[in-house]
Amino acid sequence: MAYSDVEAVSGSVGSFRVKVRKKARFVTESVASLGLRNVTVIHTRAADLARQASQRFDLVLVRAVGKIGQVLSELGPLMAPRGAIVFYKSAQVSDEL
Length: 97
Prior knowledge:
Strand content: 25-35%
Shape: globular
Number of helices: 3
Distance between the termini: 39 Å
Strand order of the largest sheet: 1-2
Largest sheet: 2 strands, antiparallel
Number of strands: 4
């Protein structure tokens, strides 16, 4: 089982960027191996999805993003009534509360 995929490589020798799709693939493979149903894994920036989403989600997991207040205002359109957002934040989260 692979836990990462190279999605894109750009630049030149000595100065390049590699975009890796790893967490979404891991979650997708985990969902399949566990036989979970009614789970959708979407690999995109949450703010982009919020602008174009026609559906709402019961649960949104967010990591390595901006301040909590800003994220809540951007992702509001993604939330189902009584839905939840789980933030993975660093130890400095108290600075945002």
